[in-house]
Every structure is written in C-alpha cells, then in structure tokens.
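Standup notes
- DV: blocked on the single-chain target, sequence here:
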Amino acid sequence: MTFQISNVFISYPTFFVLLAIGCIAGALIWAVKDYRSFIAFGTGGISPDLHGWWLVTSLRIWLVASRADLKDVRALESSRDARGFLGGQLKDRGRERPRLAGRPLPQRQITTSSLQPLNSQLEASLLALLPALVAAHPHLLHLAPSSERSSLGLYATPSPFTSSPASTTDFAFMKGEIAHVHGHDRSLHVVLSPKDAAEVINRGWGVRFPMAGWGGERIGVTLVYMPESEEDLKVVQAIVKAGVAWMTGTVVA
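- DV (later): unblocked, structure below
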C-alpha cells in the first residue's frame, strides 16, 4: 500500500506540486480576508495586530476541535462555591438564542430573537444602567475603561466596605471589573458566581465566556444577551446586581 502511494506521487509530481501551491494560496487568501474582517469587526480587549488575530484563530480552532459548548454548565454546577444571589428566581427567556459571531473573541451576538434592532429608548436605559448603580452606591462602585477598551466598565471599589466572596480569585483576576456593555451589539459581559452563571445560562439569558475557567479563574464570566424589551432589561439589571454582590460581598437594591 505504501509502495502504491509512493508510485502515485512519482507518477504525477506536477499535479501534487500544483495542489500544494493551491492549498497554500487558498490558506493565505483566507487568512488575509479573515484578518481584515477581524480588524474591521473590532477586537475588544485583544491587540489589533497579527499576534491578536493568531491568538483568536488558535482559540477558534481549539474550540471547534474540542466541540466546546458555551451552554454547558457542568463545570459551573460542580463548583464547590454554592453561593448565589439570583435566588433561583430567574424566569425562562422563552425565545431562540441569538446567534454569536464566528470568532470566540471578541465575543458578540450578531442576531436578535426578534430580528429588530434595539430601539433608542431601550438602548438609552441600558446604557444608563451602570452609571445609575454607581450613583446609588458611590462608596462601592465606580466606572472606568473596561478590559474591552471600547466601553466603560462597572468596577468594585476596593475599600473596607468591600468583602467580596470572589476577592481571592475573580476580584483579583478581573481587577475589580464587574460588567460592561458592548458597543457593537449591546450585549454585556458580567462576572457572576458559578451558581448564578449556571442559572443565567440554563434560563437562556446568556452563554459562557470562551475562556471562562482557564487557570481556575473567572469561571462565572458570562455573555448576557442584549435586552429586547423593558422586561428583558429588568432581568439584565438583576443579573448585573448579582455580579455586584459576587464581586463586592454587598447585595444592592
């Protein structure tokens, strides 16, 4: 069998050389187009260069090869930390999940369940959510540029008032960042307790961050879908407040 294959290569060398050239050329064309698309889409917290593109592409290949499911909550439900702040009261979203962008980073949704864009009034209410929490709890929270670079993040303010359940892991790793709203699609990333993250995902309101749990850190980082109604916004607000409680140790009204 090996001899026969060798004979094929010997008999048709030009064909295999052209085939190799074609494959390499096709891969290069795809890489150039994908890199340009990566830069045009916005890179979030990833460096907007070849190194950043290669990091995202490598993660993309690994996720496909490992058949990773961002809706899989087994790691969250098996966490030894059983603390949660949503209280199991989150209702089912009751709609088809939005589709996510093909690249794992930056993690974004590219469709909505209703196929309608976010209306301006609802968008304004969403963007006012984080500043309103800071205004109500200035000793506990503050706004600063997020890890995504393109938006403001909600941060816990280290102080005697902050006795975070996550202080030794998520608080340190995320540098106190609790949540941010994405400018591209108005979805959010929120740092939650494992129990709350599992509830959000099981109820259909979001999915895991692709790198959540790597190195044992930030296991509860969750993409929360863009709110499509005032009722959705109330749910998003409850999720963000659960993140505040996880990262500060303080339940806020």
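- Follow-up: DSSP finds eight helices and six strands in the chain.
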